[in-house]
Amino acid sequence: MKPFVLLATRAEDLPADEEYALFLRYGGLTAEQLIRVRLEAGPMPQFDLDDFSGIFVGGGPFNASDPPEKKSDVQHRVEAEFQVLLDDVVTRDFPFLGACYGIGTLGVHQGATIDRTYPEPISVVPVTLAEGAASDPLLDGMPPTFEAFVGHKEAISILPPSAVLLASSPACPVQMFRVGTNVYATQFHPELDVEGIMTRIHAYADHGYFAADELELTLAAARRAPVSHPSRILRNFVERYAR
Asked: What are the coiled-coil residue ranges (predicted)?
């Protein structure tokens, strides 16, 4: 099997390593089958897509809607690299699944409106499939509504004509979309479990996702309901595109 690749942007080792472990676990992959590239640590390699089965993008601290002058040199570099990569991915309709930060990268590339209209605090929310979305292969076996972990300051408020809406939540109209046949993105985190989100809550306690005195409330919100279905999307992606 050709390996998959995970493009990551987390600078903190603990949540970065745990994110990789979660993609391995819920994708049913070994370390040899999932190559991780930490983009915050250095430039994106020049990929030959023919060498891979598919691409994952994890979450991270960057916000596409931040003013250019507030973005770091690393963020500007990573954004430029994703534009080049996605030119190739979208043109070839190459298997791609971007989670959280990944929805921003694909959204920007396709001309979506990304702003602070629909943020969601770190929590568990009900995600509902759009009409007809249940027939999508990546959503095979998913219930019409399922619980998922979220936590984001920005979101897509207007999808471009090139995108097909697949899922929404009460406070965020674009939770998942598809471009072409094989290029996907989710606002929620399909890789996360309870232990993983607890790690991230502690790791990013000072990143503005919640007030300093709201740590316990945030931890409780992440335990509000059991989350078991989103990881099926990762497994469906791997099973569909492994080659």
From this structure: none
Q: Rounded to whole angstroms, how far apart are CA atoms 59 and 156?
A: 15
Q: Pairing between strand 183-186 and 96-99?
A: parallel
197: containing domain: 4-241
Q: In this predicted model, what pLDDT tens digit does every residue of 95-137 receive, in sequence order?
A: 999 999 999 999 999 999 999 999 999 999 999 999 999 999 9
CB atoms within 10 A of CB 199: 18
- Give CA separation, 218 vs 76, 77, 121, 211, 221, in Å: 30, 32, 8, 9, 5
Confidence (pTM): 0.95
Span 200-222, pLDDT tens digits: 888 887 777 877 788 888 888 88
Q: How far, in Å, CA of 210 to CA of 122, rounded? A: 8
Q: Please state, in angstroms and rounded to a whole number, the distance separating the CA atoms of residues 116 and 120.
A: 10
CATH number, domain of 39, equals: 3.40.50.880
Structure tokens at 88: 């190739």
* 3-state secondary structure at position 3: coil
In the chain, the number of structural domains is 1
